[in-house]
TrEMBL record, chain B:
Belongs to the sorting nexin family. Keywords: Protein transport, Transport. Residues 35-182 form the PX domain. The gene is SNX6. GO terms for molecular function: phosphatidylinositol binding. The keyword S-adenosyl-L-methionine does not apply. GO terms for biological process: intracellular protein transport. GO terms for cellular component: endosome. The keyword Protein transport applies. This is Sorting nexin 6. It comes from Bos taurus (Bovine).
């Protein structure tokens, strides 16, 4: 059956072509395209256990989307594996490692999934059929909501639990609507797992919302004031956006950890996300080490695209930060304006009370009422300023940081390849020396090592090409998402401004006759 | 550095919208609505020049009164000369029964100058467009303050010219006509100290005098009313100021947001760059409207309240003077009784008592009329300004709405 399928037309693998594919916004078309990668191409096979090479049909230009073989794996997983399946465990058991393990050469090659040997071809085909079916159905059909923040517990051990509701018609989920309770550290844990699996091979993993020790402490301590409710709402909205972005990513959506997060009622506590835990400190140290490395690695960039893009992201980052600062100032001033308008309203009411001309007195009271309503308007507008505009910008500032991180991983990957080449050279020199010195057993050892390092060099090259390809695709997808996001949110924001003006018109139109009535 | 010179048409071209100026004109003059054109005596400030430390006003008079040598003439005056004129009214016993038009506040460009200076210092840290934008803004601010101070000086003169008694004042005529410097050097330290003590005594007196309940219901009511009103106007004026300032800050933020969006738009390579540029344009335009809203609120609300703060103080001063004369009258009565009892200097006491009585009655009579006029003026001024405020708010909100809707139509059409 699978063999009869006509592969969707693919171009020569340039990022733009990939974008065309995604035009339909169909999660599964991309999966389908990847499923049809040629088994003969060296890249995918190396990632997976051998049996998966039954990758279908159709000669496919090797460049496109081959890295998504991992996606295939998960596609199968969604069809076949229940939560209790033993096959899932190897993935899950890895949950503790990502948080702690720095990116070492061994983990640079993705597969934690190597231990998972999946995919009989039949399953594979079947899943592809089902996927294609769904592909013809609704576009990208999954909706996530984060709601109902609830304080659990007391004192410093208290935490907020959020309800995560998923509505979907995707068949990979067992139900079409379900919800679970999650706490903030669960979200961080999810991100941590996804990041450790996908970041270093070039996927742009959406960053989780930031921790805030001050904010949370206030909530824990039970301060029931407006600033802590604001904080909780800000966090809830941020968590919702985080999940929505994550599920939008076709590769991440297939990840079993993500599914477990959304579906399973009990989630093992992600303890390694605590800021001051041992793991946390180790993370900080590693980040610092990374930073140092970044400065010292000088890569021979053969592809101008990467340099260009990096520069673009750098510029974007700068401008977004500036814009964000201005919008934050606007939020602040708008709140001030609201407070001052309220104060003026009260004062005008008092003035109206003491005014002894009746008509003028009434008009002043009306003015006070109008100003009070306008104060409300300002408050609502400040809310919109913040939640729509300001948060969009801060989300993207963090996303761009993730993008930059992915570029850095590529550089590290290159470094690893370089290092392997250098080591290989050294081993060859050793062999030559041994030959001259005529030490047969040492020669054998040297030959073994040479073989070992030749393989590593090949692997390094493949990894590098892979990550470069992935990044190109990811950046294309990211740019598309960014354009869509900004357009949608900014239009919504402008509509909020429209509403404010319409309300203002209503209020002043009501007041005008009152003012004219002063006789 | 010489500031902007206001031409005869009061700088019709310099501002974005000429209506801004004419509204302002109407606004402040409308604070005293009965200052309509009176052929007998018309005064205005036709020109003004700002030099580093002082402002020079050109006071232009048109009159058919025989007191003046010509029918139309102009002189140049500075702020101190206005204060001299005002003080001469205060010190004139004959005018004790009138509300003396409050003196115009001193021209204060310090804040604006400081901002312009800071901008100059920070020139390196911003883009050329931003710098030009901010410079334009600050210059507009400077201009607005300038126009306001001109208007306030003008209103003072108009009030005097409209007052049936004050307009005949000799000092006033000298002020209008004498084309040399009046040499009224500002008060020196000694005089300022004297003033200070005078005011202290007055407020101490005020406490004593206000304790005396007035026989006349009208004045009793006025006193209670004015006391409370004055305080509340003060509060409202301060709060209105803060509100308009916040509004302006928010408008300034729109400016920066527009600039940032512009930068994002020009450096972006995807199709969103047009989007950003359109939104940037929107923010620039909407900012102008928001700044106008803030300026109009300042004019119609804050300035109105500030002016009536000063006028209500002048009215309180009138009441004080009347109370003082009442106290003098009562003291003269007591002195007369004593003199009669002792049968010594009775005639003197009688004359003194009569004078006090006349003075008190004269003040009471004119004060009553003044306070009634004050109320009429006040109600009319509030009405005019509140109506204009509402109309302007509506105009700007509608303008804003249209801008936003047009922009949204374009943006939605594109995507």
């Amino acid at each position: 059956m699978a063999a009869e399928r006509e592969p969707p037309p693919l171009g020569d693998g340039k990022p733009t072509d990939f974008e065309e594919l995604e035009d339909g916004e169909d999660l599964f078309t991309s999966t389908v395209s990847t499923l049809e990668s040629s088994p003969s191409s060296p890249d995918p096979a190396s990632f997976l256990a051998e049996d998966i090479s039954t990758n279908s049909n159709g000669p496919k230009p090797a460049e496109v989307a081959l890295d998504d073989d991992r996606e295939d794996l998960f596609a199968e997983a969604t069809e076949e594996v229940s939560l209790d399946s033993p096959e899932r465990e190897p993935i899950l058991s890895s949950e503790t490692s990502p948080a702690v393990t720095p990116v070492t050469p061994t983990t640079l090659i993705a597969p934690r999934i190597e231990s998972k040997s999946m995919s009989a071809p039949v399953i594979f085909d079947r899943s592809r059929d089902e996927i294609e079916e769904e592909a013809n159905g609704d576009v990208f059909d999954i909706e996530i909501g984060v709601s109902d923040p609830e304080k659990v517990g007391d004192g410093m051990n208290a935490y907020m639990a959020y309800r995560v509701t998923t509505k979907t018609s995707l068949s990979m989920f067992s139900k079409s609507e379900f919800s679970v309770k999650r706490r903030f550290s669960d979200f961080l844990g999810l991100h941590s797992k996804l990041a450790s699996k996908y970041l270093h091979v070039g996927y742009i993993v959406p960053p989780a919302p930031e921790k805030s020790i001050v904010g949370m402490t206030k909530v824990k301590v039970g301060k029931e004031d407006s600033s802590s409710t604001e904080f909780v709402e800000k966090r809830r909205a941020a968590l919702e956006r985080y999940l929505q972005r994550t599920v939008k990513h076709p590769t991440l959506l297939q990840d079993p950890d993500l599914r477990q997060f959304l579906e399973s009622s009990e989630l093992p506590r992600a303890v390694n996300t605590q800021a001051l835990s041992g793991a946390g400190i180790l993370r900080m140290v590693n980040k610092a080490a990374d930073a140092v490395n970044k400065m010292t690695i000088k890569m021979n960039e053969s592809d101008a695209w990467f340099e260009e893009k990096q520069q673009q992201f750098e510029n974007q980052d700068q401008q977004l930060r500036k814009l964000h600062a201005s919008v934050e100032a606007l939020v602040c001033h708008r709140k001030e304006l609201s407070a001052n308008t309220a104060a003026f309203a009260k004062s005008a009411a008092m003035l109206g009370n003491s005014e002894d001309h009746t008509a003028l007195s009434r008009a002043l009271s009306q003015l006070a009422e109008v100003e009070e309503k306008i104060d409300q308007l300002h408050q609502e507008q400040a809310f919109a300023d913040f939640y729509m505009f300001s948060e969009l910008l801060s989300d993207y500032i963090r996303l761009i940081a993730a993008v930059k991180g992915v570029f850095d991983h590529r550089v590290k990957c290159w470094q690893k390849w370089e290092d392997a080449q250098i080591t290989l050279l050294k081993k060859r020199e050793t062999e030559a020396k041994m030959m001259v010195a005529n030490k047969p057993d040492k020669i054998q050892q040297a030959k073994n090592e040479i073989r070992e390092w030749e393989a590593k060099v090949q692997q390094g090259e493949r990894d590098f090409e892979q990550i470069s390809k992935t990044i190109r695709k990811e950046v294309g997808r990211f740019e598309k998402e960014r354009v869509k996001d900004f357009k949608t949110v900014i239009i919504k924001y402008l509509e909020s401004l429209v509403q404010t003006q319409q309300q203002l018109i209503k209020y002043w139109e009501a007041f005008l006759p009152e003012a004219k009535a002063i006789a | 550095c010489a500031g902007p010179r206001l031409g005869a048409a009061m700088m019709e071209g310099l501002d974005d919208g000429p209506d801004f100026l004419s509204e302002e004109d109407r606004g402040l003059k409308a604070i005293n609505v009965d200052l309509q054109s009176d052929a007998a005596l018309q005064v205005d400030i036709s020109d003004a020049l700002s030099e580093r430390d002082k402002v020079k006003f050109t006071v232009h008079t048109k009159s058919s009164l025989p007191n003046f040598k010509q029918n139309e003439f102009s002189v140049v005056r500075q702020h101190e000369e206005f204060i001299w004129l005002h003080d001469s009214f205060i010190e004139n016993e004959d005018y004790a029964g009138y509300i003396i038009p409050p003196a115009p506040p001193r021209p204060d460009f310090d804040a604006s100058r400081e901002k312009l200076q800071k901008l100059g210092e920070g020139e390196g840290s911003m883009t050329k467009e931003e710098f030009t934008k901010m410079k334009q803004e600050l210059e507009a601010e400077y201009l607005a303050i300038f126009k306001k101070t001109v208007a306030m000086h003008e209103v003072f003169l108009c009030r005097v010219a409209a007052h049936p008694i004050l307009r005949k004042d000799l000092n006033f005529h000298v002020f209008l006509e004498y084309n040399q410097d009046l040499s009224v050097r500002g008060k020196n330290k000694k005089e300022k100290l004297e003033d200070f003590f005078k005011n202290m005594v007055k407020s101490a007196d005020g406490v004593i005098v206000s304790g005396v309940k007035d026989v006349d219901d009208f004045f009793e009511h006025e006193r209670t009313f004015l006391l409370e009103y004055h305080n509340r106007v003060k509060d409202a004026s301060a709060k209105s100021d803060r509100m308009t300032r916040s509004h302006k800050s928010a408008a300034d933020d729109y400016n920066r947001i527009g600039s940032s969006l512009y930068a994002l738009g020009t450096q972006d390579s995807t199709d969103i760059c047009k989007f950003f540029l359109k939104v940037s344009e929107l923010f620039d335009k909407t900012r102008k409207i928001e700044a106008r809203v803030s300026a109009d609120e300042d004019l119609k609300l804050s300035d109105l309240l500030k002016y009536y703060l000063r006028e209500s103080q002048a009215a309180k001063d009138l009441l004080y003077r009347r109370s003082r004369s009442l106290v003098d009258y009562e003291n003269a009565n007591k002195a007369l009784d004593k003199a009669r009892a002792k049968n010594k200097d009775v005639l003197q006491a009688e004359t003194s008592q009569q004078l006090c009585c006349q003075k008190f009655e004269k003040i009471s009579e004119s004060a009553k009329q003044e306070l009634i006029d004050f109320k009429t003026r006040r109600v009319a001024a509030f009405r005019k300004n509140l109506v204009e405020l509402a109309e302007l708010e509506l105009k700007h909100a509608k303008g804003n709405l249209q801008l936003l809707q047009n922009c949204l139509a374009v943006l939605n059409g594109d995507t």
